[in-house]
Design a protein that fits this description.
Distance between the termini: 65 Å
Number of strands: 11
Radius of gyration: 23 Å
Largest sheet: 5 strands, parallel
Protein name: Glycosyltransferase 61 catalytic domain-containing protein
Keywords: Glycoprotein, Glycosyltransferase, Golgi apparatus, Membrane, Transferase, Transmembrane, Transmembrane helix
Strand content: 15-25%
Pfam family, one: Glyco_transf_61
Structural class: alpha/beta
Number of helices: 12
InterPro entries: Glyco_transf_61_cat, Glycosyltransferase_61
Number of domains: 2
Helix content: 25-40%
Subcellular location: Golgi apparatus membrane
C-alpha cells in the first residue's frame, strides 16, 4: 500500500516563457509517496535487484518532445542541449520520461539518448506502468539559445563537450576544418555546403550560386534537410564541410556537426533581422568553435520588392514593423520572402570565408 504526501503538478518545458509552447506541453501529475512495496513498482532496469523496493538509479529526469520540438532549432535549443546540460554528469544512470513523442522524432534522436542514458526512454502518454524513482526532475536546465554556461552547469560542461558527444554519437571523423582527419593532407578545394529550402526564404538562383562557388574553387554540395532526413548520414555530410551557408532558418542548426574552425555563413533576410540572427546562430557559433559570417540581403536581392512598392511601409520602416510584435515580423520578413543573391557579392563573401579557414 502507499500513503500520499501530496500531489505535485508541473510542465516539463525547459523554457516556461512561451505560451505557444506551453499549450502543447503535457501537464504532469506526480505523487510523492512515503512507502511503496515492490509489487507496485515496475523495475525495467537491468541493474535493479528483486529485493529493492524502488529502482535504484541516481536520478530520473522528465522532459518533453512537445512544445516547439519538431523544428530542428527548437529540438536542440529547448530539448537536447538542456537535456545534456542537466544529465550528462549522471554517467548514463538516468532515465528520460517524454510526453508528446512522435515515433519519427524519437527514432531520429535515439542514438543521442543512448549516449546519455543506459535505459530506454519512457513514453508517459502510452506507458501504463507505475515507475518509482528516488528523485525526479521536471524540466531541463536552460541557459541560452543553443548554449551552456559552464559556471552554472553540473560538472562545468560546455557546448564543446556537447559537440564531442555528437561526434561520438554519429561517428563524425573531423574534429577540425579543412583536414579530413589528423595527419591527412590539406584539401585543395574547401568544401561548401549550401543549405537549401523548399518553402519561404528560398535561394532563387541556387544553381548560379553553386556555379559561382565552383569558379571560386570550392567543392560545392547542396542539401535540403527535413524532419525525415537520415540524421547520421546528414551529420556526416555537414561534418565534411569547411563552410556551411544558408538563409536564416532551422536548417542552420546543423552547424552543431561542423568541425571546429569551420565557417558558418548566415544569410540575413531583408528587414532589420540582425538581432534575431545574432541570438539564434551568431552567438551560439562562438561557443561551438565555429567562425561566423553574415551575408546581409539588400532590398534589391529580396523578393519583397516584387510584392510591395519601393515606398511601402514594410520596406522603408522595418523597425517600426518590429514594434508590432513577432507575428508581424514573421509574416512580412520570414514567411513571404525569398532571396536572389548578388553573385559578385557572394564570391567576395566566399573568398573572405576561405581566408579565415585554418
Amino acid at each position: 500500500m502507499a500513503m500520499k504526501h501530496h500531489l505535485a503538478r508541473g510542465r516539463p518545458e525547459p523554457r516556461r516563457v512561451g505560451n505557444a509552447a506551453m499549450v502543447v506541453t503535457m501537464l504532469l501529475s506526480l505523487c510523492v509517496l512515503t512507502y511503496i512495496k515492490a509489487r507496485y513498482c515496475s523495475t525495467p532496469f537491468p541493474k535493479a535487484a528483486e529485493e529493492l523496493e524502488v529502482v535504484e538509479i541516481d536520478e530520473d529526469y522528465d522532459s518533453t518532445s512537445g512544445g516547439f520540438a519538431g523544428n530542428l532549432y527548437h529540438d536542440y535549443t529547448d530539448v537536447l542541449v538542456p537535456l545534456f546540460t542537466s544529465t550528462n554528469h549522471f554517467g548514463g544512470e538516468v532515465q528520460f520520461l517524454l510526453s508528446g513523442i512522435k515515433d519519427w522524432w524519437l527514432d531520429k534522436f535515439t542514438p543521442l539518448f543512448r549516449q546519455l542514458s543506459r535505459y530506454d526512454v519512457i513514453d508517459v502518454d502510452n506507458d501504463q506502468e507505475v515507475h518509482c524513482f528516488p528523485r525526479i526532475f521536471i524540466g531541463a536546465t536552460f541557459h541560452r539559445a543553443m548554449g551552456i554556461d559552464p559556471a552554472r552547469s553540473p560538472g562545468g560542461v560546455t557546448v564543446a563537450d556537447f559537440k564531442r558527444l555528437l561526434r561520438r554519437t554519429f561517428r563524425l571523423e573531423r574534429a577540425g576544418a579543412v583536414a579530413p582527419r589528423a595527419g591527412a593532407p590539406r584539401r585543395d578545394k574547401p568544401r561548401l555546403l549550401i543549405i537549401s529550402r523548399k518553402s519561404s526564404r528560398r535561394f532563387l538562383n541556387e544553381r548560379a550560386m553553386a556555379h559561382a562557388a565552383a569558379l571560386a574553387r570550392f567543392d560545392v554540395r547542396i542539401a535540403e534537410p527535413d524532419n525525415h532526413t537520415d540524421m547520421p548520414n546528414f551529420a556526416r555530410l555537414v561534418n565534411s564541410a569547411d563552410v556551411m551557408m544558408g538563409v536564416h532558418g532551422a536548417g542552420l542548426t546543423n552547424m552543431v556537426f561542423l568541425p571546429s574552425r569551420a565557417v558558418l555563413i548566415q544569410v540575413v533576410p531583408f528587414g532589420g533581422l540582425e538581432w534575431l540572427t545574432r541570438v539564434t546562430f551568431k552567438d551560439p557559433a562562438k561557443d561551438m568553435g565555429v567562425s561566423y559570417m553574415e551575408y546581409n540581403v539588400s532590398l534589391d536581392e529580396s523578393s519583397l520588392k516584387e510584392l510591395y512598392p519601393r515606398d511601402h511601409f514594410y520596406l522603408q520602416h522595418p523597425y517600426d514593423v518590429h514594434k508590432k510584435g513577432w507575428d508581424a515580423i514573421k509574416t512580412v520578413y520570414l514567411d513571404k520572402q525569398n532571396v536572389m543573391l548578388n553573385l559578385t557579392k557572394l564570391t567576395n563573401t566566399l573568398e573572405e570565408a576561405r581566408s579565415i579557414l585554418p
